[in-house]
Amino acid sequence: MSEPNQSRPDVHIPVLADEVVRLLEPRAGETYADCTAGRGGHAARMSLAIGAGGTVVLNDLDGGCLDAARLAVEAGGSGARMVGFRGNFADLPRRMAEGGLAADMVLADLGFSSTQMDDAARGFSFMREGPLDMRLDASRGETAADLVNALPEAELAGIIRDYGEERLARAVARKLVAERDRSPIETTSRLAEIIRSVVGVAGSGRIDPATRTFQALRIAVNDELGNLESLLESVERGAMLRRGGSVAGGWLAGGARIGIISFHSLEDRIVKRAFARMCESGLARALTRKPVEATEDEVGMNRRSRSARLRVIELT
Questions:
Q1: Would you place residue 5 in the very low, low, confident or very high pLDDT band (cuts 50, 70, 90)?
Q2: CATH class of 17-114+224-315
Q3: What's the rounded Cα separation, in Å, for the pair 105 and 35?
Q4: How is the beta sheet containing 55-60 ordered, strand by strand?
Q5: Does residue 134 have a pLDDT over 60?
Q6: d(C-alpha 249, C-alpha 98), whole Å
Q7: What mean pLDDT do residues 127-136 have?
Q8: Architecture of the domain delimited by 122-222
């Protein structure tokens, strides 16, 4: 696959599944919160460990994924109680606190499910012809087409540079503005062709030239980095509440383990800095000295795992 940083595998092969179970160390009767339930692969594994006395909290912005995750957990037959929330994971801490739920384990897998990537109508992939959408929640918000066809050239270049780390961002933005003046850019294939006309054509072993710009637009459309920072701030606030002896409004149990799986350097950098800050202030201890990556065997079975990076902390 040519889009290494944009995918989360199917329910049958959740990325870094063994490592997640080992590091989050689920125990019977605990509460597991899956911020990005996807197709339910991680949740199904975790539910078996916490058993009938435990609780699985499933959250996803995509209603179809949320339904699939519920089915996956049910199929495991653990008997664990399930609580489902549809919405942005940045809102999950508030919703859990309001529901009186405190997580012993939290996982946020920041990739995308194969069904989302493979659905041409969602517009995530330059490998499939479809409308230029890219919204995780297709019922609201601006699409990638809205951004490409309306943003000023300088702002568009900034998004492509900052979120895609594309060195030719200014040239790509200039070309997009020139092309949209001729006719609106509305499909994934046309956007990819325009980008390739500036960046070039991928050679053997190289990523597709459209990869970085598609990543940048997807991040901007869904405010992915802003939502990640909000979640991490909620983790830090929750840790401070526990450290201060207050449980009012807290969404994290004492000694909670927090795992984040990122798929590109921008995400991993944010997680690394937030976790380091919490460890330095004595709010947490690192369970991973460096990010855990997929084994060669896993990458061989699931190429989409090759860019996954897992970091885990435990609240003190």
A1: very low
A2: alpha beta
A3: 11
A4: 81-86, 55-60, 31-34, 103-109, 252-262, 309-315, 284-286
A5: yes
A6: 7
A7: 86
A8: Orthogonal Bundle (1.10)
